Amino acid sequence: MKWMRVLGLVIGLIAGILWIAFGMSRARMMVVIFPVVIQSFVVGFAVVVSSLIAFRWHILGGILLVLESITPIALLFLMASGYPLFFSVISALTLVSGLVFLFSGSKS
Q1: What range does the domain containing 46 cover?
Q2: Does residue 108 form part of some domain?
Q3: Does 32 reside within a domain?
C-alpha cells in the first residue's frame, strides 16, 4: 500500500531530523561540541537513509528502522545523559516507522 509507505517515510524523516536537531541543541550547551554533533548526525543520518531505503525496499528498510529504534532503548541510560524522555519518544517514532514499512505489504 503506497500510502503506508509514504506515512512511514514521513515518520522516519521526522525522527531523523529530530535526532539531528537534538544534537545541534545539545551541542550549544556543551563545551566539547564535536563528538556530540557527530553522534547525533550519524544517528539522524542513519534514520533518514534507512527511511529512504525502506521506501524502495520496505522489508529491508523496515528491519533497519526497527533495529535502529531498539538500539537507543537498549542503551538508554548510556546515551540519554539526562534526556531519557526524548530518546524514548524518538525511538518510538523510529519503531513506528519501521513497523509501518514492515506491514505495508508488497503492493505499491
Answers
A1: 2-102
A2: no
A3: yes
Distance CA 11, CA 95 (A): 10
Q: Quote the pTM value.
A: 0.79
In one-letter notation, the amino acid at residue 90 is I
pLDDT (tens digit per residue) in 36-65:
677 777 888 888 999 999 899 988 988 998
- 53 in a domain, yes or no? yes
Task: List all residues 6 or more positions away from 76 whose beta carbon is below 8 Å from its beta carbon.
Answer: 84, 87, 88
Residue 107 belongs to some domain of the structure: no
- Residue 98 vs residues 3, 4, 36, 77: alpha-carbon distances, Å: 14, 11, 25, 23
Helix residue ranges per DSSP H, the chain: 2-29, 33-56, 58-74, 76-79, 84-102
